[in-house]
Amino acid sequence: IWHASLPMGVLASFISEAKGLEHLQLGVLHLEGTEEDFHTISKALDGHPNLKEFELSDFSMNDNTINIDSLLNALAGLPKLEKVKLEVTYQKRGSLVGSVAAAQKVKVELTGSALATIISSKSVRELYVSRLVLKTQDVKDLAAAIPASPALKSLALSHCNLDDEACSAIAVAVHDSDKVESLDLSCNNISDEGCIAIATALTGNKSVRFLRLWGNVKISNNGFDALAEMLDNNTVLERIPLMAPGEYKNRIDAKLVQNRSLGNQAA
Fold it and tell me: CA–CA distance from 93 to each of 44, 65, 88 (Å)?
């Protein structure tokens, strides 16, 4: 369902009746209703027998501040769910709600404990969260669940206002995990301190193949040096999209090419 203004009750009824649904992609939506109405969507999802993929991207609501923990808790209990994507729009779209309403900021809230519940699922392999401002404690709560996550392979937290303390918590968690293969921390507030924490955590890591740090403009030469030195010992990482000066980019890319070559030989 794409580019529509949709009453939440209508969406909830659709989900309730579509028991054979496996992939639900909702994009560029303005969801009409209150936080209480939003809970009807959560109830409709609760116990859904076949849903494997849930994507709610570029969405807004006419209740300007809303907590979506109930949605995450419902998704966490689905037996076949493998992928969750949540991406909020910064502002409502004028084409859906008019210019006056579009000027209002959108604030969607969730807690780290609810995110932790998602990755504690036995089936969820991918969690993508974007443009949802996360408090440091919420990131720590999420990070604490990563090492014991039974299925998580890919974690993306882009445009979530992560600082170095939050990044360090994720770094420690990924270090203690042997399952996470992809980590996207792009477009946050990470500086050299957070970058060095990630590099340190990945020095001996054997699972992460993709690390995205693009858009963290506070990372400078010290952070790039740490990534290059980490790759002296890490032969698993294959790609690190980031904005770096030519000298550092060339050093890092040369080592990543070697790693990809080793990976191809092993395959």
Answer: 26, 16, 12
pLDDT digits (tens, 9 = 90+) for 232-257: 999 999 999 999 998 999 999 999 99
Helix-then-strand count for the chain, H and E: 11, 10
Q: Give rounded-to-5 percent helix, strand, coil for the chain.
A: 40, 20, 35
Which two three-digit tokens encode residue 8?
Answer: 């939440």
Q: What is the pLDDT of residue 57?
A: 86
Tell me what the mean pLDDT of segment 187-211 comes to.
Answer: 97
pTM across the whole model: 0.93
Residue 93 tokens, joined: 């779209």
Task: Please choose, from the candidates 230, 238, 185, the residue with its C-alpha nearest in 3D space to the C-alpha of residue 210.
Answer: 238
Contact indicator for 46, 75 with CB cutoff of 8 Å: no
- The angle formed by the CA atoms of residues 202, 204 and 210, to the nearest 5 degrees, is 40
